Amino acid sequence: MKRNLHLLSISLVLLLSLSPLAAGGKAEQVTTPSNSLAWVEESLENGLPKVNPLKVSGNIITAGSSTVYPLSERMAERFMQEGYSGTITIDSIGSGAGFERFAVAGETDIANASRPIKDKETESAKTIGRVPLEFRIGTDALAVVVSKQNTFVQNLTKQELAKVFSTAKLWSEVNPAWPEEPIQRFIPGTDSGTFDYFSEEIFNKNAEPILSASNLQLSEDDNILVQGIKGSPYAIGFFGYAYYAENASSLNILSIEGIEASAVNVDNGTYPLARPLYLYSDASIMRNKSQVAAFIDFYLSYVNEEIVQVGYFPAPDKALEQGRTLWLDAMRGIY
Amino acid sequence: MQTQSLFGTETDINTLMGKRKRIGLLWKVAFLFSTTLAILFLILLLLTVIDSSFGYVALRNEVEPSSLIAGKKSVKDFSRAELERVAATNLSSGILRRVEYEKPLEQRTGNDLVALLEQYVIKPKVLKTWGLWDSLTHTKAIDEYSRSEEGSYLTFKSWINAEFFLADQSADPLHAGIRTAFLGSLWIILITFLFAFPIGVGSAIYLQEYAQDNRLNRILQLNIFNLSAVPSIIYGLLGLAVFVRAMQSFTSGSMFSSLTDATANGRTILSGGLTLGLLVLPVIIINTQEALKAVPASLRMSSYGVGATKWQTIWHQVLPASGERILTGTILALSRALGETAPLVVIGASTFISVDPTGIFSKFTTLPIQIYQWSARPQGAYRNLAGAAIIALLILLMLMNSTAIYTRDKLAKKKRLES
Amino acid sequence: MHEQTAHPFGKRKRIHERVIETTLFLSAMLSILITVGIAFILIRESYLFFSDPDVRLLDFLTGKKWQPMIGLFGFLPLLNATLTTSIIAMALGIPIGLFVAIYLSEYASDRSRGILKPILEVLAGIPTIVYGYFALTFMTPLLRSIFGETTVEIYNTASAGLVMGILVLPMIATMAEDAISAVPKELRLASYALGGTKIETTFRVVIPAAMSGLSATFLLALSRAIGETMIVALAAGAGPKLTANPFEAAETITGYIVRISGGDVSYNSIDYNSIFALGLVLFLITFTLNLTSRKISSLFHQEYD
Asked: Domains along chain C?
């Protein structure tokens, strides 16, 4: 009786003391916000210090666009594979929600975005003492996709695109040659930068026509969209190119205004739905948490080696150059 | 002549009886059938999960081993010297630097080097996966696929293996594991237990031993029953509003200034544990009450009879007598909490988290949430991973429930021997 | 073991006892605090939601489109999807659960009962996320192969509903079996004595006698199905749609809450407040069902002694 209770309390104490041991493996090191950049190696030719991830520690908190997510995930993984020992978290919640966490709640160090920051969001950031810095990291060719079973659509004009995603109920209403079947729409949710971009490009910033469409399914998780579109020949949707590339065996991508989404067409600017991808941070965060600066440096330096594999397209050299200058400005005095 | 009765002739009665008996038999078959269906559902469920966890995988290497060393088809065939040489020349500078830092190439074992080369140089990519059933029955179709895809090769993979438990989250399905999620689950259950057990047992003791049968206590009782049937997502909303937002300074740890981080927020293990604690609290209370009720009044009476006070009676007589039932019920409640997904999604478990939780103020992900995220991804390989993770979860639950039953039996036996 | 023999029955011991009693009382009060907390949070955030000029209560209750971003706040599509999945779940779970319960209590030998009850317990203990996975990887492809890929969308409420039925099956079976077993043997024997067969006894005597427990069971199961989240989140669909066709995708109340909170909206945005308003509705529905279930079980409870 008494012994059993003693036994219980002893095992409880044991459990409690063992649990920190369970956190072995890749446990986080204690972080001392340092102003000395221990992780700097020699300079790269384009002016950014070379990062030695082995010497970077501390946590990095990022959140935002689901489009940017696979890219950030790849860069974070590479960062860790090359020796980063701290914690990095990336939440895929949509550009809007990412800005919310960055600029209003102040919860994140970096916001991932597939659209530029809005004035309102910049204002909010200022009220909590942050000045958003924009780093362009790549380009996405927004992929408008249908299932592989869809044999009737290969191309859409911008006008047709607008109709497909708003007023038309049946495919035949857009083009009489197409079947008389209801259009099943799968689109990113309203928190998503992709959604904002699409409404801006196709509907002139008006979200109403697309949101009033029939047969509409929204999700911030592009994987759910892929799943839905795969399932029916009459489904259509759009998301970042990487999600198409990952599922190219079950999806067909449409050309827009006759122009395919390819590296060439993105580079020369002819693909109508090419859009920039960004990271946003703030100079004070970068200076106080040097690991954030290290990660951004690493990102800017090596993103072009990884971006094509992830499924996106490199940013123009000029934009990357601007990002580097911004980084150097932010870190002036420390580096 | 046939006997007449109020109910008709004998033949009539026999016919009628026959019909009634047949109807009875029909229904019995229906009941038996339903029971078989129920068992069938369970089997189907388990088979689906097992089916996803094993099967053929079609892989394609980014870099073929034969292009590194002519004539050798697999990295495992390389000699030790070749392994070192290839590693030194083909690993990217950043990776090489880290690898050398952890342990120089010359000191590494052959197997180590093989694994390194596989992961960083050869980089096999998953083209397609099949379930166990397909792998056993459709071998021809699988072979055909492999032949049609240039450079691909097949391997039979058990998605649940030691590496699966030890690896952390990764974008590459071949290297993804559940370690972070697993630890997150354990941490949260610990907090849940520490919060809900004392309060739950305490409340139950009060309600059962001290409370008079007045209006307030009846309402209290009813209230607890209702709470136990509230959908779990409501607890998630409550946790979001109270623990994550309103109590942010407490749950993020910034109140204790252990985090000078400006980005601390309330989406921590502490918030998750407290929320699940609220969820299981009513269950623990009800279960403990039942256990206390089962203790015979005579035990209490005899204790009072020798002059013990109320608390002494409870502590020395009633609790030990009901202890094993309380413990069993608590463990079962905790195993339910282990499988909960919705409240933690609402609280905000992280999508990508690279490091194991180090304390109650860490961000987290749990096993059920990992399963949820993997299930939502359309590529086949993630289905397999989700299946393997489900097996891990079910094993964990089975262990917990067995512990509960084992403890109960052991304590019961001890009591029998002592009495 | 008892150290109290040396103590006089003095003030000191009484205080000790009072302290303990008060601590325990406060623990019990915490449960009230939780209920109050739930109600308070839900009501406050819902108030914020309904006080927004774009939202009108009548529209909320009767409107047919739910799209907060453009000011449409009719929650009927969400309610409809919730009801569709729950009704399908009940249609599967109640008959089979009841039949299993009847088999277990009336027909099964002790040995088979010893095997079947643990199986039911195992089914009951499987986390709902596993059922969600099952719906997506087994049930949906099954429905699509039976009814054709054009009739059954890849996300649909039928698949979610059927799997939900399997989820509540063990719960219904166990509780119904308890209710049926609670009917005293004497009633059955009396019926046999009057010449009834086993099946007639079951249907005309035992079931009606157990009706209070059975109705309570069914209401609780319905409440469980309505509050279920993960199965619908994975399998039912991601967009609110008012439709009577269970083969189409439609988002339920719980699915919507999970989707929006996963996206993390701003505090005080209309989306954030809407999940609390919906949470309040959900709470009220399940609370009413639970309360009614207890009322019925006590109201129609028959005393046989």
From this structure: 61-304 (1.10.3720.10)
The verdict on a CB contact (< 8 Å) between A16 and B190 is yes
Chain C closest CA to B86's CA: distance in Å? 42
Residues of C in Cβ contact (< 8 Å) with A212: 65, 67, 70, 72
* List of residues 6+ apart from B234 with CB closer than 8 A: C38, C42, C227, C279, C282, C283
**C294 vs A36, B215, C98, C216, CA distance in Å?**
67, 17, 19, 6
State the pTM of this model.
0.85
Span B172-183, pLDDT tens digits: 888 888 888 898
* Main-chain phi, psi angles of B339, to 5 degrees: -90, 0
ipTM: 0.86
| Tokens describing residue A234 | 């009459």
Closest to C209 measured CA to CA, from C137, C295, C135, C302: C302
CA–CA distance, C127 with B389 (Å, rounded to integer): 12
B359 to chain C nearest CA, in Å?
24
Token representation of residue A28: 């986080």
Q: Which residues of chain A have a CB within 8 Å of the CB of B378?
A: 223, 226-227, 230, 247, 250
Q: Kindly write down the DSSP assignment for every residue of B342-389, as one continuous string.
A: HHHHHHT--SEE-S---STTS----HHHHHHHHHH--SHHHHHHHHHH
- Which residues neighbour B76 within 8 Å (Cβ) at sequence distance 6 or greater? B114
Most confident of A214-218, B206-210, C32-36, C126-130: C126-130
Tell me the chain B residues in contact with residue A301 when contact means C-beta distances shorter than 8 Å. none
Residues C192, C197, C203, CA angle at the centre, nearest 5°?
Answer: 100
**Chains that contact B by 3+ CB pairs under 8 Å?**
A, C
* Residue A182 near chain C (CB below 8 Å): no
* Own/partner pairs, B257-265, CB within 8 angstroms, 24+ separation: B258/B361, B259/B361, B260/A33, B261/A59, B261/A289, B262/A106, B262/A285, B262/A288, B263/A61, B263/A106, B263/A107, B263/A108, B263/A109, B264/A107, B264/B361, B265/A105, B265/A107
In order of start, what are the domains of chain B with their CATH numbers? 55-157 (no CATH), 179-418 (1.10.3720.10)
Question: DSSP states of chain C as a string?
Answer: ---GGG--S-HHHHHHHHHHHHHHHHHHHHHHHHHHHHHHHHHHHHHHHHHSTT--HHHHHH-S-EEGGGTEE--HHHHHHHHHHHHHHHHHHHHHHHHHHHIIIII--HHHHHHHHHHHHHHHHS-HHHHHHHIIIIIHHHHHHHH-TTTS-SS-HHHHHHHHHHHHHHHHHHHHHHHHHTS-HHHHHHHHHTT--HHHHIIIIIHHHHHHHHHHHHHHHHHHHHH--HHHHHHT-SS----S-TTS----HHHHHHHHHHH-PPTTSHHHHHHHHHHHHHHHHHHHHHHHHHHHHHHSPPP--
**Closest residue, chain A, to B94 (C-alpha):** A82
Q: pLDDT value at position A131?
A: 94
Judged by CB atoms closer than 8 Å, whether chains meet at B378 and A226 is answered as yes
Residue A169: name the closest of A177, A155, A179 by CA: A179
Rounded to a whole number of angstroms, the distance from the CA of C15 to the nearest CA of chain A is: 24
Put simply, the answer to whether A223 touches B95 (Cβ < 8 Å) is no
Query: How near does any CA of chain C get to the CA of A43, in Å?
Result: 39
Banded pLDDT at A26 (limits 50, 70, 90): very low
Cα separation of C61 and C74, whole Å?
6
**Least CA distance to A223: which residue of chain B?**
B377
Find, in chain B, the residue whose alpha carbon is nearest to that of A1: B320
Count of pairs with CB atoms under 8 A, one residue in B, one in C: 246
pLDDT tens-place string over residues A101-117:
899 888 899 999 999 99
